[in-house]
Design brief:
By secondary structure, this protein is an alpha/beta fold. Among the domains are: about 35-150 and about 160-190, Rossmann fold (3-Layer(aba) Sandwich), CATH 3.40.50.980; about 420-520, GMP Synthetase, Chain A, domain 3. It is built from 15 helices and 26 strands. A 9-stranded mixed sheet has the order 2-1-11-10-12-13-14-15-16. Strands 4-3-5-6-7 form a 5-stranded parallel sheet, with helices on both faces. Strand 12 (about 260), helix 10 and strand 13 form a beta-alpha-beta unit. The N and C termini lie far apart (about 65 Å).
Length: about 525
């Protein structure tokens, strides 16, 4: 058994930063501000209060809440007890959230006032025994019938410090994959810690950073690429639950934020916001994006309008905690569209169906080996075995490597379009559409077609005040790529469907418009 003197858990990271930088700002959220010493004290007291409710080593505790200081405190308080965090996507309906609560065997559910009704309904028929109300960024009253988290902070119970193994689970994150039921990826303390090291080194997260956390903390990108590594090095963190462009620009300017992560859709929203040019962004030095490739035209616009900001592209998935590869600032325009090279603690290959490396430029499946990887899918040995077939983790993404070893993610296997017997990568078509100056956002998907089986179909959002017709867009694409790759139809929309992390929901486009070609 690992002895306490060699302890290496998520809570140890917070304790070390509190010892090094006790008076430095750790968390700011709304009117709440905690130094590192105060943050560690809050988490210790919260852990003791949770222990009085029966939360202990190995207990599963679910969080259904927007971003807040209370969310961050729950994360580290659970690590202090050796309990397992189960973050729940707050965009899910009660039935979907209920599946996660039942499948994860969660015994306590913490929620803010906004989602308290959904939490109550979702918990029916589950093993949830206690409901805890969490404070929000904005002033709110405790939800009726829930235990006020401030009451837990006042409880005087004892909570012995368990001698945790680093291999013990720290969290179960449910993936939003294509299956009818999500899978729960189990991530251990050591997997997260190895991933934090990859983030600190590759993404240059430093102790003097001031980070804005605006994407949902239930998503491991914000939680474990930014908040966790920031606490590891003792950086300062501003947390918000208000991700609108106007609100984000206000916080970026007000707090003089130096480091910010968002998917390309959010960066595009900031660039299109009327407040952009009047906001003082002089302190912003590090910018990060992920979830999808940044269109080259947008990269160039960012370089022109934010010349002091160095950009990183981060690629990965939940099962690798989640960082797998990085494209560094110096490569953004030299290797446009690339996901970069493997992170410090990751080895990445692109292979064929027989697990043989494909030649540079050839398409294959992206696979990984890393101590950051999931321990497996909770209560699903068959899917765990399939994911690790051949001794490598199968990402489900298709990609290529160039002759310098830079990775290019071609598409999810499910997003590859096979039209008339030819393969079309939706991202290639999207990049072509983004060359048009009138285009703000674009998504390309396959829709059922009576002749072509699958038809390349584009959904496009135009910039404010701009005009563009379907024929001109299709002609533009046909002039730059094979005609079979050009969209068969273009649907102009006011907005593209996205999840709370800003990732495009192509599945919703496919589902909502499945009959498009049967109507013509």
């Amino acid at each position: 058994m690992t002895m306490p003197a060699r302890s290496q858990t998520l809570f140890d990271l917070l304790q070390r930063s509190a010892a090094r930088h006790p008076r430095r700002l750790a968390i700011a959220c709304g009117d709440t501000q905690w130094s590192y010493a105060q943050f560690a004290d809050v988490c210790e007291r919260l852990a003791r209060g949770l222990h009085t409710l029966g939360v202990q080593r190995g207990s599963h505790v679910a969080l259904l809440s927007r971003n807040s200081h209370a969310f961050a405190a729950m994360r580290f308080a659970l690590a202090r007890l050796g309990a397992v965090l189960v973050p729940v996507n707050f965009m899910l309906g009660a039935a979907e959230a209920g599946f996660i609560l039942r499948h994860s065997e969660s015994m306590l559910l913490a929620s803010d006032s906004e989602f308290a009704p959904v939490a109550r309904e979702a918990a029916r028929g589950s093993s949830v025994r206690h409901f805890v109300w969490l404070e929000s960024e904005r002033a709110s009253q405790p939800a009726q019938g829930m235990i006020d988290w401030t009451e837990l902070l006042r409880m005087q119970g004892d909570a012995p410090q368990p001698a945790l193994q680093a291999s013990e689970p720290a969290q179960i994150v449910y993936t939003s994959g294509t299956e009818s039921a999500p899978k729960g990826a189990v991530l251990s303390h050591e997997a997260l810690l190895w991933e934090y090291v990859s983030c600190v080194v590759g993404a240059e997260i430093a102790s003097d950073d001031l980070l804005l956390h605006a994407l949902p903390l239930f998503h491991c990108a914000q939680l474990d690429v930014f908040l966790g590594p920031a606490v590891y090095v003792g950086a300062s963190n501003v947390i918000t639950a208000q991700p609108s462009p106007q609100a984000l620009l206000g916080l970026l300017g007000q707090h003089r934020i130096s480091s910010f992560f968002a998917p390309p859709t959010v960066w595009i929203g900031l660039l299109r916001c009327p407040d952009f040019d009047t906001t003082d962004l002089a302190s912003l030095r590090k910018g990060y994006y992920g979830a999808s490739i940044m269109p080259v035209a947008v990269l160039r616009e960012l370089a022109e309008r934010l010349p002091r900001v160095r950009l990183w592209n981060l690629y990965g998935q939940t099962e690798i905690a989640p960082l797998a590869t990085l494209l560094q600032p110096e490569d953004q325009l030299r290797k446009p569209g690339s996901a970069g090279r493997a992170a410090l603690n990751v080895r990445t290959r692109v292979v064929d169906d027989q697990m043989r490396d494909v030649a540079p430029g050839e398409v294959g499946e992206i696979v990984h080996r890393s101590p950051q990887l999931t321990s497996g899918y909770f209560r699903d040995e068959a899917k765990t075995a399939a994911a690790f077939d051949g001794g490598w983790f199968h990402s489900g993404d298709l990609g290529t490597l160039d002759d310098e070893g830079y990775l290019y993610v071609v598409d999810r296997k499910k997003d590859m379009i096979k039209t008339g017997g030819e393969n079309v990568a939706s991202r290639e078509v999207e990049e072509c559409i983004y060359l048009l100056p009138q285009v703000s956002e674009a998504a390309v998907v396959a829709l059922p077609h009576p002749r072509w089986i699958e038809a390349v179909t584009a959904f496009v959002v135009l910039k404010a005040g701009q005009q563009l017709d379907e024929a001109a867009l299709i002609a533009h694409c046909e002039s730059r790529m094979a005609h079979f790759k050009a969209p068969k139809k273009v649907v102009f929309v006011d907005a593209l469907p996205k999840n709370p992390s800003g990732k495009l929901l192509k599945r919703r486009l496919r589902d909502d418009h499945a009959a498009l070609y049967q109507q013509t």
